[in-house]
Amino acid sequence: MTEVHHFTYGVFNPIAAYLLAFMGSFFGLLCTARARDARTRGRRTRWLSIAAFAIGGGAIWLMHFTAMLGFDVPASPVRFDIAMTLASLLFAVVAVGLGLMIVGHGPRRLSRVIGAGLLTGGGVLAMHYSGMEAMHVAGTIHYNLALVVASAIIAVVASSVALWFAISVRGWAPVIGAAAIMGIAVCGMHYTGMAAMTVSLNPGLVEVHGIRPLTMIVPIMLITAATIVGVALSALQAMTEEEFTDGAGTPKRGVHAENNPWSLKQASMATPARRPSPRPGPVRSTTNGESLV
């Protein structure tokens, strides 16, 4: 077995990875809180979808590859397969999204949280080990079964706790505390899975295909920026619709009317003008017997 480094750049990678896990969990929990207050199923689904990108894409996937930048095998080049890397992103977002949809719709029950936690934990494991499969070295990667099982247990427990927080935590202080716990759990699962791996070099393997780890920063930053912009725009649109419409999605009456003269003008234009109906006048008699109104 060859030498493997997990902290090539010192404490920078684990600290940056934890901050990303904390921030993704924090924004995800804020979105799930908005989802609980939504009056329609469609709006609740939108907020849960935004939370899935925040937690699955930010707190889990982005944390994973930020930590992976500190991985190095001194005796071998390390390269990444971009297609498998993107597939791991899909696993993370879909797994978290399915778990949130299960617990976010319907009654709040412990059995639902546990079932969704098993599903989400399995998706997180698929994300981690598919991401590891995307890493190529001049040799073969082996895993310690006991540590793999330990990482699976951590993933399921962390996912279940995160889903429980998603349907119960409210308020700034509890959300910050829950996000801090989720960040620790996500990082613990990752580094447990990393501790399970060993590398045996293959002297006959000279060329390693893929892109360099530091080159991964460019596509990851582009994907992250596009995701953040998309999530932010979707969240702003959802908040705007909730502000100007009631729970059924129809415009609120009397709200912001004084600040929106166009609404008053359009309402007056849309209402047809009515002419007053003629009222009968007194009847007068003439000399020849005819009546005049």
Automatic annotation (TrEMBL):
- UniProt GO cellular component terms: membrane
Q: Which Pfam families match?
A: MHYT
All copies of domain MHYT, residue ranges: 9-200
**What are the transmembrane regions?**
15-35, 47-70, 82-103, 110-129, 141-165, 172-191, 211-236
Alphabetized UniProt keyword annotations: Membrane, Transmembrane, Transmembrane helix
Q: Which residues form a coiled coil?
A: none
Looking at the record, which segments are called Disordered?
Answer: 244-293
Q: What is this protein called?
A: MHYT domain-containing protein
The organism of origin for this protein: Paractinoplanes tereljensis
